[in-house]
What does this fold into?
Amino acid sequence: MPYYLFFYDYLLFNKLNWVYFKDNYIKGDDIMLNLTLLGSGGTMPTPERFLSSLIIDYKGRKILMDCGEGTQVAMRKFNTGFRTLDIICITHLHGDHIYGLPGLLATIGNSNRTEPLTIIGPMHIKKLIEEIILPITYAPFGIYVVESPNEDLGLSIIEEGLRIVEESNSTEMTLSTIELDHSAPCLGYSFYLKRHPKFIVEKAMGNGVPREIWKALQHGESFELNGRLYKPEMVLGDKRKGIKLSYITDSRSIDNIVPFIKDSDLLICEGTYGDDEDIQKAKAHMHMTFGEAANLARKGKVRDLLLTHFSQTMDDPREYKDNATKIFHNTAIGYDGWKKTLKYR
Amino acid sequence: MPYYLFFYDYLLFNKLNWVYFKDNYIKGDDIMLNLTLLGSGGTMPTPERFLSSLIIDYKGRKILMDCGEGTQVAMRKFNTGFRTLDIICITHLHGDHIYGLPGLLATIGNSNRTEPLTIIGPMHIKKLIEEIILPITYAPFGIYVVESPNEDLGLSIIEEGLRIVEESNSTEMTLSTIELDHSAPCLGYSFYLKRHPKFIVEKAMGNGVPREIWKALQHGESFELNGRLYKPEMVLGDKRKGIKLSYITDSRSIDNIVPFIKDSDLLICEGTYGDDEDIQKAKAHMHMTFGEAANLARKGKVRDLLLTHFSQTMDDPREYKDNATKIFHNTAIGYDGWKKTLKYR
It folds into this structure.
């Protein structure tokens, strides 16, 4: 059956089914995460490099990872927008990851945003936001702070914003955190964008599933109708792998990270020092060398590795790329404005 | 007498006189203020413009005027140095003038500075520094905060740093403040670098002044020796005009500003709006148009006017320059990295 006829048929049928179709279409193979590395530097902002941070764009709504001094300037430079930012994830409370918060919130406030914003971070993030940031900024919108979440968080687009929701089969994305090993309490993050099994019309029809419960079943819910129990597998194809993105900075390369980043499509990882000989510096300041980050990528069997958070002592981190690629081939060196789209495979 | 002979003579005489000579040399006609406009934007930092701030370099020691997000990046870009910064003057506590403080202090801290730093600002600056900034930064040096000084402050180089000293004839520079008219308590600043009258050797000798008190008299102090009172005018020439620099941002153009900036060699003044038609916006947001700033410069009979703190809605403030020059000819449009040296005339 041609698609436009299928669509027409559903419109005629009822509104529920139209919504189902629309959702199914949006949730189809076009779903992706658009990433923009806003900055790639560590410790201090310089004229050459913004401080490490990342924008994750999901259906036009944004997650920001870290916010050092100048992050709002990078957001402007790389056109990521301010009003559509729904979630800010802070890895730790060192200045190069937080000093941009008052300015960013003020700029968002000036953009006339009224929708609430969620800030997630490690221990003491609530105190930071409530006692330090909010008294000196203009934030005419609700701010919900989640401190050190001790379980995975479900994220979905609700009322046109990306919000934390109760984890369920219909949750669109899962956010996980891990305690890293740095000189301050520090969280690593991973995002898993779920991929629903294919909805197979022939299978649904073959199993005699009434159309009005197709959507519920597609979203993983079982449904009883007229005394018969309908299960998701009556309309769905095989399980499909979603998209996994991991973000690890700042930390030593501890073993716990390996299962946490396992099978990521992309691992964005700090590589503060390019030179293998800087290993003692890396240990002293609780950072990683390129080689250590590459080792994590290899052990975690990730698809790609992007290095960031470069020491300002490295003029050109690309000079040290071999120190990573000899351990993990698919390594890229981050730079301000780097972009990538992660799609379902 | 050739200079080198003069110098030799003094070295032979005694150490006091050598110091006198050295000081006199340094305090001579080479004394100047080297200015670097670090940024020229208002409200929000953008990729095109840093936020308004200024470095005043006096004998290699620095005064920073305002510190918005990114000011430390501009300091790095324009090579003004961090360790030699002795005084930070804050005009008011709006974000575009203060959000760069935690990062700047941390960067100075990382430069291993141990000498104390002075921060001067309006009402509530103490609370800001003590309760908001210091808890989240690394400042392993003393910070002295001066809130709303109600009289002029004397500045001199002491122990290799520019410090507040008791106002006296030997004070090198005077810092004055004025309450401006903005939506938050806001201070305008002016700096007057004194110029000592010329020391006239022939006059000193003619008046029979003993050499060991030349220095004291040169610095404006009277001196009694062997029952005779020696006065400064016995060794000095006529009074000479020093260097006056005024810094006015953010404010409406109130009348009080005129006597405050009177006869400045340079007035650096906010000109948030270039277009005369934006006068209502200027009034609403308590800023000035180029024309209003130029009017102040004209009434205050300053030598030169530099406009800064441009609204981000102006892509190129130079387009509106005529709106200022038709009122005050010696107007320049500020830009990031603008430099000027103010010398004794």
In short: The two ends of chain A are 25 Å apart (CA to CA).
